[in-house]
Amino acid sequence: MRNSKIKLTITAMFLAAGAATLAIQTGEPAKSSASVASTGEAGPAITIYKSPNCGCCQSWAEHLDANGFETSIVETDNLNEIKQQYDVPREMASCHTALIGDLVIEGHVPADDIVAYLENPEFNTKGLSVPGMPHGTPGMETGRKDDYQVIAFSADGQQRVFREHKDY
User: Fold this and answer.
1) How far apart are the C-alpha atoms of 85 and 135, rounded to whole Å?
2) Closest Cα to residue 62, out of 141, 127, 2?
3) Counting beta carbons within 10 angstroms of the beta carbon of residue 159, is it exposed (0 to 12), middle (13 to 18) or buried (19 or more)?
4) What is the pLDDT of residues 37-92, one digit of tens each?
5) Crossing angle for the helix pair 111-119 and 2-26, nearest 10 degrees?
6) In this predicted model, what pLDDT tens digit does every residue of 126-141 receive, in sequence order?
């Protein structure tokens, strides 16, 4: 357990450095809301690109914040440009795009799934996505729960199911 905590802390430090570099490179203002995990250690830094008017994106950011991520929000009216810049396949698209270092997180991916991926990253994976906006995903708590999948996608267009969420 101690080794995995150390590994996660080291990973979080590298990811935070990458996210800070990205924020500097984009030159866009970011609103930061740092949070600390229940262990007292800072979690992974994530930069979220979202529309200024999207409430579900804000709710997803709050979900991540509550689960120990250090969130920075960049509001933009041109999300398609962000998706193209980071090679998000059209069929993987959702309402917001986020970055943890070079890893793209597209849509309402649960915090636990992101952490699981970070603990055991897969070779040649560009990102994780919950395509569309399924009901019951973090940020889309509407009272209805749809079955959905978290998809891992690569730069060459390969896709595979990383996790499945079913409403039993």
Assistant:
1) 28
2) 141
3) middle
4) 344 466 899 999 999 988 889 999 999 999 999 999 999 999 999 999 999 999 99
5) 110
6) 999 999 999 999 999 9
What pLDDT, on the 0 to 100 scale, is given for residue 12? Answer: 42
CA atoms of 93 and 80, how far apart (whole Å):
9
Nearest alpha-carbon partner for 113 in 150, 88, 61:
150
d(CA 45, CA 39): 16
d(CA 66, CA 76): 23
Calpha distance 1→19 (Å, rounded): 26
The whole-model pTM stands at 0.75
| Chain centre to alpha carbon of residue 155 | 17
* Pairwise CA distance, residues 39 & 128, whole Å: 26
Which 3 state secondary structure label does DSSP give 147? coil
Q: Where are the alpha helices (DSSP H) in the chain?
A: 2-26, 55-66, 79-85, 111-119
Residues 6+ apart with CB under 8 A from 29: 74
